[in-house]
């Protein structure tokens, strides 16, 4: 059960949440060696900018900054103004120069069982080669490169190579369709695409390069495609455009002098779904982003670079992979695990086997995976030695107390802290989380804004709600890793994030939240038309557009329905066109075709779990679809208040037609 998924129309908090008032204090041993203590909160409140300047000073700057924050162009901030640095130098070279070249940066494990250990010295050489290759292709600082790669070291190397020469990367998750890839390539006017011949998926090679070829047909901006050989399947190479990574990058010099860039130089674009049909390219820049990535990674995960083995099991195609696989951990000279495959390949104990083998000490995953482990059974974690673990993290969606407690007991052995971390693509780095050596943690609560960060839970008109009450989560002070806007649409960020509480100047996150009686924060899920499926953001409108782009569909309405494993599942209601029998007179055949169609349009992550064919959709008098009522149907609940429906017979017709169909 996920607490209060349906916040937009009604706020409800489950019994389970209210009852789980038990807290878990850190052990003394953890507390005394922790990177952060309680005093950080006061330090940050007393002098916010001084506090952030101190965090920024942990990085190596080629030119020191003269102003911490320039907020005169709000809501576009400039942090560490006047400073110059090289992000890749900070993540790689400086550790080698400090004598840590032989420390493993990445313990990489491939899905078929192959592995590579990459030290910081090796990483420096590889990143330099890739940087030289991109320069030879004619790229200059400010150009854009799109990266669609599986979870292989070349993904990290490519990102850092771009950063090293001031080129902006846009990583596209491997599961996105050619159409979605093409939209991102065009939006950023990318000159180079980096991909691989294929990717392992549940034990077998699946194509990747051929998807890229399809995406790039007549793409106007792309001059070259770099292809990493991963699975060894034959691919078509376009003469003059396509180059093999092992030949072209492999043949470059490993010497490259990193030049410095302005603190506000663009670092990357990452697309995320909002409340419209078109994904937004979220822009992040260099100095502020890296400062908060490194700081949060240091204090929330309590990382000790000399002893810890850290594993964030995200994909680099999402913000979690950017900030907590690439930039934060590497800036902090972390040794980490990078795993290519799915958690159940070749068997369901795979993650635990890796933790045991590599003595992983910090493990960061999403609640959907915890719930999947619960389903697979307690016997799996029990079969492995997980005593190397000393800290667990959770991200991506509200963690229900039941999953928290299972995680605590079965993976953490009942002895180690869990940090529930709330943040977004737009925030760039963690904003709300308990500090593991400080907080007595509460199952299900992200608890408290980090030192240096300020958030509030407010009501409709922007007034802070009392303890024990729910409302909207807002961020009321600028922060270093905040997005610098939407790529190609400079005015849109104001409207999307800041207009809702314009008078107060608050950033509206799109999430509902609640203060408990102690003032701790509980996240309640999205309050807009964004669904959260397995910790991935998908807009209802994006899926609806994909459905209506199929000739058989007249109208579609999509809702996120509570799902035991994935948090929410996509449920679509479609009205077929009068002549849809031209496609088939069998609804099952049409439904199967529609599922495939959405997969092809957006990607398998957007494929609805259920598609229900209905004769009508419930609408308000102004024509707005009442998703709340459809969610009632999708979650098998009694239909709620229909007072605002234009035509109350609509819901009866829908429920009756579904009953007679099943
Ligand atoms: C949305 C952001 C942050 C990296 C992964 C997702 C939800 C994220 C939590 C959490 C409750 C969470 C929110 C947020 N979310 N973390 N710990 N507790 N909800 O990044 O794709 O930008 O999605 O994910 O709804 O707005 P994203």
Question: How are the secondary structure elements laid out?
Answer:
Layout: H1 15-19, H2 28-33, H3 39-46, H4 48-56, E1 67-70, E2 78-81, E3 84-85, H5 87-100, E4 104-109, E5 115-119, H6 120-136, E6 144-147, H7 153-164, E7 168-171, H8 178-188, E8 192-196, E9 198-201, E10 204-207, H9 209-216, E11 224-228, E12 242-244, H10 245-248, E13 261-262, E14 266-272, E15 280-285, H11 287-300, E16 309-312, H12 319-331, E17 335-339, H13 350-358, E18 362-365, H14 367-376, H15 379-382, E19 391-395, H16 401-411, E20 418-421, E21 455-458, E22 470-475, H17 492-498, E23 507-515, E24 521-526, E25 530-533, E26 536-539, H18 540-548, E27 553-563, E28 567-576, H19 587-601, E29 610-613, H20 627-634, H21 649-661
Parallel strand pairs: 4-17, 6-7, 6-8, 7-14, 8-11, 11-12, 16-17, 16-18, 18-19, 19-20, 28-29
Antiparallel strand pairs: 1-2, 3-13, 4-5, 9-10, 14-15, 21-22, 22-23, 23-24, 25-26, 27-28
Helix pairs in contact: 3-4, 5-6, 5-7, 5-12, 6-7, 8-9, 11-12, 14-16
This protein binds 5'-O-[(S)-butoxy(hydroxy)phosphoryl]adenosine.
């Amino acid at each position: 059960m996920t607490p209060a998924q349906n916040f937009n129309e009604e706020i409800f908090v489950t019994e389970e949440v209210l009852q789980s008032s038990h807290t878990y204090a850190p052990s003394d041993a953890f507390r005394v060696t922790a990177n952060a203590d309680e005093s950080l909160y006061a330090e940050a409140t007393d002098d916010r900018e001084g506090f952030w300047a101190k965090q920024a000073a942990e990085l190596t700057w080629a030119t020191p900054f003269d102003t911490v924050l320039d907020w005169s162009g709000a809501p576009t901030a400039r942090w560490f103004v006047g400073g110059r640095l090289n992000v890749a130098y900070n993540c790689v070279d400086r550790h080698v120069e400090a004598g840590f070249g032989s420390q493993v940066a990445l313990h990489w494990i491939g899905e078929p069982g192959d592995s590579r250990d990459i030290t910081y010295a090796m990483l420096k050489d590889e990143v330099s080669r890739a940087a030289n290759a991109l320069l030879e292709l004619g790229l200059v600082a400010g150009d854009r490169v799109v990266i669609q790669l599986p979870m292989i070291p070349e993904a990290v190397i490519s990102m850092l190579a771009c950063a090293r020469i001031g080129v902006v990367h846009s990583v596209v998750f491997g599961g996105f369709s050619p159409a979605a890839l093409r939209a991102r390539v065009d939006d950023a006017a990318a000159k180079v695409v980096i991909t691989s011949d294929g990717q392992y998926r549940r034990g077998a090679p699946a194509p990747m390069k051929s998807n890229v070829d399809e995406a790039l047909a007549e793409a106007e901006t792309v001059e070259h495609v770099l292809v990493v050989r991963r699975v060894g399947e034959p691919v078509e190479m376009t003469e003059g455009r396509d180059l093999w990574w092992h030949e072209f990058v492999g043949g470059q010099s490993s010497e490259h002098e990193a030049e410095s860039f302005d603190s506000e130089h663009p670092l990357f674009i990452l697309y995320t779904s909002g409340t419209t049909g078109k994904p937004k390219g979220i822009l992040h820049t260099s100095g502020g982003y890296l400062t908060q990535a490194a700081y949060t990674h240091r204090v929330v995960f309590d990382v000790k670079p000399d002893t810890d083995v850290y594993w964030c099991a995200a994909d680099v195609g999402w913000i979690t992979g950017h900030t907590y696989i690439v930039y934060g951990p590497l800036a902090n000279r972390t040794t980490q695990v990078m795993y290519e495959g799915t958690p159940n390949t070749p068997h369901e104990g795979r993650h635990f086997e890796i933790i045991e083998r590599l003595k992983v000490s910090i493990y960061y995953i999403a609640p959907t995976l915890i719930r999947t482990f619960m389903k697979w059974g307690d016997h799996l974690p029990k079969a492995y030695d997980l005593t190397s673990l000393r800290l667990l993290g959770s991200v991506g969606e509200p963690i229900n107390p039941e999953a928290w407690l299972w995680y605590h007991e079965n993976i953490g052995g009942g002895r180690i802290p869990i940090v529930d971390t709330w943040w977004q693509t737009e925030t760039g780095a963690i904003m709300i989380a308990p500090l593991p050596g400080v907080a007595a943690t509460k199952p299900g609560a992200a608890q408290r804004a980090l030192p240096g960060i300020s958030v509030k839970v407010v009501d409709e008109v922007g007034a802070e709600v009392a303890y024990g009450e729910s409302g909207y989560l807002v961020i009321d002070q600028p922060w270093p890793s905040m997005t610098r806007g939407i790529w190609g649409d400079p005015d849109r960020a104001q409207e999307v994030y800041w207009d809702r509480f314009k008078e107060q100047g608050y950033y509206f996150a799109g999430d509902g939240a609640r203060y408990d009686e102690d003032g701790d924060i509980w996240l309640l899920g999205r309050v807009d038309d964004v669904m959260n499926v397995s910790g991935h953001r998908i807009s209802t409108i994006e899926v609806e557009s994909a459905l209506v782009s199929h000739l058989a569909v007249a109208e579609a309405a999509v809702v996120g329905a509570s799902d035991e494993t994935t948090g929410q599942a996509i449920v679509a209601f479609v009205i077929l066109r009068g002549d849809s029998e031209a496609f088939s007179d069998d609804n099952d055949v049409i439904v199967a075709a529609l599922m495939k169609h959405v997969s092809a349009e957006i990607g398998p992550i957007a494929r609805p779990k259920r598609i229900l064919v209905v004769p009508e959709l419930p609408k308000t008098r102004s024509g707005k679809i009442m998703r709340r009522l459809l969610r009632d149907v999708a979650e098998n609940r009694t239909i709620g208040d229909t007072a605002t429906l234009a035509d109350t017979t609509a819901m009866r017709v829908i429920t009756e037609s579904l009953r007679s169909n099943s």
